[in-house]
Design goal:
Length: about 230
């Protein structure tokens, strides 16, 4: 596989907030919501590899396919304590690593920090999903920030001050999260020049004007990537 020699990190978009990031052959899947997503009907979840499934918060549009993929792959779930406990108690998915805000853990692929998000996190059955978060993943070669669902907030400045963020996965769809205007400010705060957009166009409330989104980032000299569902990017 020549990709192993040309790229260390490979990012695949599966629609909405769902991304896979491959780090030296380890597959990190974020917020799997694929089978209920009308725009992702061409994605076959039975073929998606996962060693770890990272869950930002408890909403259905971030956890819909966690159980199925975790059962097939035996992936380790990484999320806050409440969500990890919920998957164990309700579905017997016991292979979980609980975290809480501000905490970091060294996994074999790199260091993960669970960071603040301003949003909500109630689970589909009304259980508490704790407080919502995002993840900073740091490896020797590259580091990135997966914001999850969030408003723009000042803690992003701390991320930029104390972490090197090579690229950031940021919501841009507005209404339920920040829109692309605020996301461009978030990119400045975390000091990254590359942003992959998430949480847009899935349904009516979050449809965006791609041209305006691109112009907003271009004005700030930040590269906005809007991959097609199923597309891989380096
Ligand atoms: Ni949400
Ligand atoms: Mn959401």
């Amino acid at each position: 596989d020549k990709r192993l020699f040309t790229s260390f990190m490979l990012v695949t978009f599966y629609g909405h907030g769902c991304f896979k990031v491959d780090i030296n052959g380890t597959h990190l899947l974020f917020d799997p919501f694929i089978t209920p997503n009308e725009k992702a009907k061409h994605i076959d979840i039975s073929t998606i590899p996962a060693d770890y499934i990272l869950i930002s918060h408890g909403h259905e549009d971030h956890i819909a396919d966690v159980k199925r993929i975790a059962e097939r792959t035996n992936a380790t779930l990484i999320s806050n304590f409440e969500i990890i406990s919920w998957f164990d108690k309700n579905f017997g998915v016991s292979n979980g690593h609980p975290m809480n805000h501000g905490g970091s853990w060294n996994f074999p692929f790199g260091k993960v920090k669970y960071v603040n998000a301003i949003h909500s996190s109630t689970l589909p059955d009304g259980s508490s999903g704790g407080n919502p978060g995002g993840f900073i993943v740091e490896t020797v070669e590259k580091s990135f920030y997966y914001a999850g669902d969030t408003a723009l907030h000042m803690d992003m400045k701390l991320i930029g001050e104390y972490h090197r963020i090579d690229f950031a996965l940021l919501p841009i769809g507005d209404n339920f999260t920040m829109g692309y205007d605020d996301a461009s400010i978030a990119a400045e705060m975390v000091k990254t020049k590359t942003v992959v957009g998430l949480h847009y166009d899935t349904f009516g409330f979050i449809e965006i004007d791609h041209q305006k989104a691109n112009e907003t980032f271009k004005k700030k000299n930040i590269n906005l990537l809007l991959p097609k569902i199923g597309e891989e990017i380096n």
